[in-house]
């Protein structure tokens, strides 16, 4: 990947319009057999869980698909599936779109493009999610939920002590 250079500063508004990825295009996802995914059939479903298909979710999917390897991309989607299933089984109210975007971005700080040497990878991923959502006009309270979820995803004892 091409390193960021001082002569090409990125802002939240431009960072996701001009991401440089000299990778070959990845093939489109093949719908899972029996998933109900296909033209005109609604959102993709995996294991009974609907994958959010809003414009924002699709944009986040494309971005993370382009900027990560297969391991991180598929891991991130599984994180959403397990999280959504857990939420359903425990009767938790959650915003599927926010949980999905949080899951997609949660390990972005592990990639070369988004890793910094000044902070933990969780914060790098959380900061990128914040920039992505803020650049698209998402309200600050929703952005903060995603940021906190990503920043704290490896320290599960901390959120138990935070306000609901």
Question: Could you explain how this protein is built, in words?
Answer:
The protein has helices spanning 12-15, 55-67, 70-89, 96-105, 121-135, 140-151; strands spanning 45-46, 49-50. The protein is mainly alpha-helical and 164 residues long. The chain has a domain at 55-164: HD-domain/PDEase-like (Cyclin A, domain 1, Orthogonal Bundle). Strands 1-2 form a two-stranded antiparallel sheet. The longest helix is centred in the middle third of the chain and has 20 residues, at 70-89.
Provide the fold topology.
Elements: H1 12-15, E1 45-46, E2 49-50, H2 55-67, H3 70-89, H4 96-105, H5 121-135, H6 140-151
Shape field: globular
Quantity of strands, as a count: 2
What fraction of residues sit in β-strands? under 5%
H/E element order: HEEHHHHH
Secondary-structure arrangement, i.e. CATH architecture of the domain at 55-164 = Orthogonal Bundle
Widest beta sheet: strand line-up: 1-2
- Bin the helical content: 40-55%
In this structure, how is the largest beta sheet organized?
Answer: 2 strands, antiparallel
Low-pLDDT residue intervals, each spanning 5 or more residues? 1-37
Structural class: mainly alpha
Mean pLDDT: 78
As for the CATH topology of the domain at 55-164, it is Cyclin A, domain 1
- Tally of individual helices: 6
The CATH first-level class of the domain at 55-164 comes to Mainly Alpha
Oligomeric organization of the protein chains: single chain
CATH superfamily of the domain at 55-164: HD-domain/PDEase-like
* Cα gyration radius (Å): 16 Å
> Distance between the terminal alpha carbons, to the nearest Å?
40 Å
